[in-house]
Amino acid sequence: MPQSAQSPASMGPKASEKIPMLNNIAPSIFVPLQDDFLTIEPPRDRIERLKRILQTIDCQREGVKENLLYMFEREKKRIVLEATEIEEAQGLPDINPGLAPSEVDEIIANMEAPAMPGRDYNVRDMPRPGPAPVPPNASLRDKTVMELLNMVERGLTELEGFEKHMAGIKDRYLICLEQEMARVDDAGKRPEERSGIRRF
User: Residue 2 has what pLDDT?
Assistant: First the structure.
């Protein structure tokens, strides 16, 4: 029997439980069934079958995206909780200013400098940075921030890759559906009136 869709957030760990590190996103592919295979009527023809496949692709895509977002949100929570526990045990660190006053003045001066004539300052393509290595001598807070940034970059990469993968699958079945509908439409036409579309 199909189970009702349940938000992954409702199945999250309790505050007292230690969250394991996210090492594998493969479980994200498992989503609740939308139909009862024991009672659902089989498709009448290829067109209905292809339409059902397309509906299943959309449901699967949304379910996996929800699972991925939950996994990365859970990993973010783990990183923050782990850093909080360490900081509570070690005590609050001394906070050093990010920039020296002389560096701030230099940055402001560069921002106020006039633009070079003829130079195009528009950024049209911003390459996505790869995972940044965490320096061994980084403070706990700096390390935590870098881990969070790397986790966000990984999440975006995984989500975009999954979207591209599912879009390719959906496009293939859309082509199949269009060709099957054209084939059925051609069935009642004379040979010279047919579209000539071959089955995919």
Answer: 44
Report the 10 Å Cβ neighbour count for 33: 12
Burial degree of 148 (CB within 10 A; 0-12, 13-18, 19+): middle
Domain positions in the chain are 53-92+136-185
Residue 56 has φ and ψ, to the nearest 5°, of: -65, -40
Reading the block at residue 29, the tokens are 């592919």
Separation of alpha carbons 13 and 77, rounded Å: 10
The yes-or-no verdict on residue 112 having pLDDT over 50 is yes
Instruction: Determine the Cα–Cα distance for residues 133 and 72; give it in Å rounded to an integer.
Output: 19
Compute the distance between CA of residue 149 and CA of residue 163 in angstroms, rounded to an integer: 21
Query: Which residue from 10, 22, 8 is spatially nearest to 155, judged by alpha carbons?
Result: 22
Looking at residue 194, its pLDDT comes to 61
Write the DSSP symbol of residue 139.
-
Reported confidence tier of residue 30, pLDDT bands at 50, 70, 90: very high
Handedness of CA 17, 20, 21, 26 (dihedral sign): negative
Task: Note the pLDDT of residue 193.
Answer: 60
Q: Is 50 exceeded by the pLDDT of residue 105?
A: yes
Question: Has residue 146 got a pLDDT over 80?
Answer: yes
Cα–Cα distance between 72 and 55 in angstroms, integer? 26
79 vs 85: CA distance, rounded Å:
10
Residue 167 has pLDDT above 60, yes or no: yes
Structural contact between residues 78 and 22, judged by C-beta atoms closer than 8 angstroms: yes
